[in-house]
Write a structure and sequence with these properties.
It is a single chain. The protein is α+β, with helices and mostly antiparallel strands. It is built from ten helices and six strands, in the order ααααααββααββααββ. The strands form three sheets. A two-stranded antiparallel ribbon has the order 1-2. A hairpin with a 4-residue loop joins strand 1 and strand 2. Helix 6 crosses helix 7. It starts with a helix and ends in a 21-residue tail after the last strand. It comes from Photobacterium iliopiscarium.
Length: about 280
């Protein structure tokens, strides 16, 4: 066996991995193998399978890869790291997310002809159940997502879209104005996480990645995300009101100084000498 094959995670001896890690790596290998899936189609390409097999080492050894996974292991506490069952859940949730991972941009979604469509968290939870044969509770799922975000391994941004162009017709009633609505958030696996495993120099991974990109381009699918933007990018500056130094007396109905003690307040439009009463 060549040295390159010996370095592959699935070629390690079973005795060096725990039962939990071996079960996870075996399932990842099965999900990434076209022949072993009942549908005849792998859940993810070879490059993504190698990424997940490398991340599976985190279950038994959180200090692997020169301790580059410490940001995840110690994201909750600098003293006590994640428990083994938590590390296993992190790997399983990452597998569920990578079922819809775009290998070029590391975006999580489904490429379409016009733009890339986002997916909901419930879709990822269904992927989890399909991959591992068991459901995951919302509490455990969202807690795992929070761990990835704390480690800066996952970025989630809210997205708002507009159903039609406002400039097409400016003479609209209030009820006919374009609707701004929310979509499932943008989810992206960060380059920080991808770089931990140093797979860019692997020939098999590079070829698989280029093949996946070529297949997507041949189908005419795009990875662009769309976003709602306001009608104007200009700032509206509004001057502060001048300080009121004269007020009407409640008894005599005559104007009087606001500060009868003799304090002089010089109003300024810049607001530098405003008191808390203003």
């Amino acid at each position: 066996m060549s040295s390159s094959k010996r370095q592959h995670p699935k070629n390690k001896a079973k005795s060096t991995a725990s039962v939990r890690q071996y079960a996870v790596t075996s399932r990842i290998t099965q999900l990434g193998a076209q022949k072993q899936m009942a549908s005849g189609k792998a859940k993810f390409p070879y490059c993504t399978k190698r990424l997940l097999l490398a991340f599976a080492h985190f279950i038994d050894n959180p200090h692997c890869y020169s301790r580059q996974l410490h940001d995840l292991h110690y994201c909750q506490s600098t003293v006590y790291g994640l428990q083994k069952r938590q590390r296993e859940t992190c790997v399983k949730v990452m597998v569920a997310m990578c079922c819809d991972l775009e290998v070029e941009t590391h975006q999580i979604g489904k490429p379409q002809l016009d733009y890339m469509d986002t997916i909901t968290h419930h879709t990822i939870m269904r992927n989890y159940e399909a991959c591992w044969g068991e459901p995951i509770s919302e509490k455990r799922y969202y807690h795992t997502i929070k761990l990835f975000k704390l480690a800066d391994f996952l970025v989630i941004d809210a997205v708002y879209l507009q159903d039609r162009d406002l400039l097409a017709n400016l003479d609209l009633n209030d009820e006919d104005l374009p609707r701004v609505y929310s979509k499932p958030a943008y989810k992206t696996v960060t380059q920080k996480f991808i770089s931990v495993f140093s797979l860019d120099s692997d020939d098999g991974v590079v070829k698989s990645k280029l093949r996946s990109i070529a297949n997507r381009m041949r189908k005419g699918l795009k990875t662009l995300w769309v976003r709602y933007e306001a009608f104007s990018d200009a700032y509206v500056w509004k001057k502060r009101q001048r300080a009121t130094v004269i007020r009407t007396d409640a008894v005599t109905q005559q104007p009087r100084a606001r500060y009868p003690q003799g304090r002089v307040i010089k109003p300024s439009i810049l607001g530098g000498n405003y008191t808390t009463e203003h």
